[in-house]
Structures are given as structure tokens and as C-alpha cells.
Write a structure and sequence with these properties.
Radius of gyration: 13 Å
Distance between the termini: 40 Å
Shape: globular
Oligomer: single chain
Strand content: over 45%
Largest sheet: 7 strands, mixed
Order of helices and strands: EEEEEEEEEEE
Helix content: under 10%
Number of helices: 0
Structural class: mainly beta
Length: about 120
């Protein structure tokens, strides 16, 4: 069984920064493609970014490209999301996800096997 625990959310003013973390336990971290998704009230879950097992390839939603950076620390079994120049429209619950056997569209939440409980990010204008 894999457990994912997020932290780092909070309240920040527009233009500010936050760094989210997701600690993975229960299985070897390097076996999983990892991703961040977010869901705002009344909206569908939205892909934010993903990173393959080796960390050698990443992808981002157009809405966050150039502002957010996904990374992984194998030694600490931790996934990060550095969020800069935050906007009110970035307000959402952010969740990390793990995919043991990536085979399709990595931006599709259905691809992922394990999820964290989420952390709230609120950006004020």
C-alpha cells in the first residue's frame, strides 16, 4: 500500500509563492510517475504537472507553465511543486498522485493509482 501526504498549502497574496511537498511511503518512490492535480470549488479536477520516474521529463498545464516547477527528491521520497507568481485563479485543493504503470495520457487523473488527501491553496487578490 502506498501513502501520499501533502503539505505546504496556505493563504498567500497574488504574486506570492508557495512550495508544496508530497511525501510517499509504503513502496519505492522511484517506481512511480508522479503528478499534481488541483480542484477548485464547483470545478472538475485539473491536471497541473507531472514528472516521470527518473525525473528527466516533466510536463505542465498551459495555465501554470513558466510559473510552477515540479521536482522530485528520490533520497527523501518526496515530490515538490514550487509555485511562483500565484494568481487568484490558482486557488484550489492541490493533490499529488502516483502512477505505477503509466501507459496513457499522464494528464488524465484516471491514469493514477494512488492519491493524497490534498492541501488547500488560497490566493487573495
Amino acid at each position: 500500500q502506498v501513502q501520499l501526504v501533502e503539505s505546504g498549502g496556505g493563504l498567500v497574496q497574488a504574486g506570492g509563492s508557495l512550495r508544496l511537498s508530497c511525501v510517499v511511503s509504503g513502496r519505492t518512490f522511484s517506481l512511480y510517475t508522479m503528478a499534481w492535480f488541483r480542484q477548485a470549488p464547483g470545478k472538475e479536477r485539473e491536471f497541473v504537472a507531472d514528472i516521470i520516474r527518473s525525473g528527466g521529463s516533466t510536463s505542465y498545464a498551459d495555465s501554470v507553465k513558466g510559473r510552477f516547477t515540479i521536482s522530485r527528491d528520490a533520497a527523501k521520497s518526496t515530490l515538490h511543486l514550487q509555485m511562483n507568481n500565484l494568481r487568484p485563479e490558482d486557488t484550489a485543493v492541490y493533490s499529488c498522485a502516483a502512477d505505477r504503470w503509466p501507459a496513457g495520457d499522464r494528464s488524465n487523473w484516471n491514469e493514477y493509482d494512488y492519491w493524497g488527501q490534498g492541501t488547500q491553496v488560497t490566493v487573495s487578490s
